[in-house]
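Narrative of activities, Objective 1.

The group set out to show that a structural description can be obtained from nothing but a protein's sequence at a throughput compatible with the screening campaign. Below is one input-output pair from the validation batch, recorded exactly as produced.
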Amino acid sequence: LALNKSYDAKGYAIAAGEWPANYTAKLTDGEAANELDFTNVSWFAFCPSESDNGINAPDGVGAVTIDLGAVSNIAAIKVHAFNADVAQGSGIKAPAKMEAYVDGVKLGALTPASTAADTATWWTLEAPAKGQNVKIEVTLDGIFAFINEIEVIEGAEVVPERMRMQLLSSETGNPSISISADGATYSYNYDP
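Output recorded for this entry:
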C-alpha cells in the first residue's frame, strides 16, 4: 500500500564540511538495501543534530508519516532498519524502539526479525487497522538510526456479519449458538 506514496520526513544531509553526508534514501520505493554504505543514498538517517534538512529526530525520536492516498485496510507494517552496534565507530545504532500509528491511533511496537549486530533486518507489527495515514516513530539509541524502506501490507475487508457467522459455525456447517444459564438452554440457529 505504501509503494511510491508520499511521506513527510527528510533524511539527514550535510553538503559541506568535515563530515559530508547524504542519508536520504527513498522510504517507499520498494528497494531495501542490506549492506551499510556510507557513499550513496541507500539509507535514510534520523539524527537529533542539525543538518541541511533541519533536525529530524528532536529529543531522539524521529517520525515519518506516509499518506496512503485513501482509507485502506491494513494487515501489517514493516520497516527495514540497520541493527548496528555503533557500526564502524559511526554512531549508528539499532533503534531503541519503533512504534506505529494509523490516523493518530497507536497500534503498537514493531519487533525486529533479528537482533544480530551490524545487519539489516525487517521490523514488523502485525495489527489489523483501517486508515489513510501511517506514522512510524523511531526512538534512537545512538547518534543515528538508519532505515531504508517502509511497507504497509494490505489487509482483507472484514464484514462483521460474515465474521460473526464464521465464528459461530458448528461442525455440521450450520451457524448456531447454544447458551445455558440458570437451568435454561437457549439455542439460536442462524441458518434455518
